[in-house]
Amino acid sequence: MSKSSKKSALIGGVYGGIGRALARRLLYQDWRVAGFGRDPDKLEEVKGELDGLAVHQADATDPDEMKSVFKKAAEEPGGGDAYIHCVGSVFLKAAHLTSPDEWREVMAKNLDSAFYALRAGIPLMRGEDGGVFLFCSSVAAGTGLANHEAVAAAKGGLEGLVRSAAATYAPRRIRVNAISMGLVETGAAKAILANEQARAVSEQMHPLGRIGKPEEAASLLSWLASDDASWVTGHVYGLDGGMGAVATRPKITRA
């Protein structure tokens, strides 16, 4: 991909809560930033909100469109040093209630899209400085959560993809990492968080007692994309309020 005096990044799902927060942070840090998504209206909205952001319309679940958007990003400001995949979905349903079409959609959005991005972007990162690929996983990939079968399978596959790709491309100085998140306050989680009771339950499931913020994900992703993390590859970092590693003390109601 093309180089300049500034670091450059391409963000998949740039108008989502995490993608938008990340674009804002990287622009503030003087990166060149481009992003893509399927919805042209949302792309124009985020472009108007963030001065200096370049946008492209593309469907991350279409391998041909992914090839096209990476080539465009390589030819324009933004998109050369790092790719951050903020594409995915929140899907809660038990396996026996999940239709084959729903299963395929979850896999397409959460796993296929990540593979297509990696496949399209790797050939364009040929510089001596290598490059960075970052992905967004879920705490459900490593912690058994009820009604998460489809998304847990997809994100588990994503984490395997991250580790294998890190090994394959380390000789080319291309780093591949991911963050594994609990529930974050984004549009994708709106259906859950809009319900007061569901929100309260979700908060209690996280040992730190609250839902995550997009800016917190953006902070970790921006560090992983930076030269400060230049010796980090093949890792999945937990960003889940302790949910994946900490067992909370049960609340005891006394009579």
Q: Work out the radius of gyration.
A: 18 Å
CATH class reads Alpha Beta
Task: Using the alpha-carbon principal axes, give the shape.
Answer: globular
What is the strand tally?
A: 7
Gross CATH architecture: 3-Layer(aba) Sandwich
Query: What composes the largest sheet?
Result: 7 strands, parallel
Oligomeric state as shown? single chain
State the CATH topology: Rossmann fold
- Specify the structural class: alpha/beta
Which homologous superfamily in CATH is the superfamily? Answer: NAD(P)-binding Rossmann-like Domain
What string, H for helix and E for strand, traces the elements in order? EHEHEHEHEHEHHHE
Which residues form runs of ≥5 with pLDDT under 50?
none
Strand share of the residues? 15-25%
Mean pLDDT metric: 92
**Number of domain modules:** 1
**Helix residue percentage:** 40-55%
User: End-to-end distance, in Å?
Assistant: 66 Å
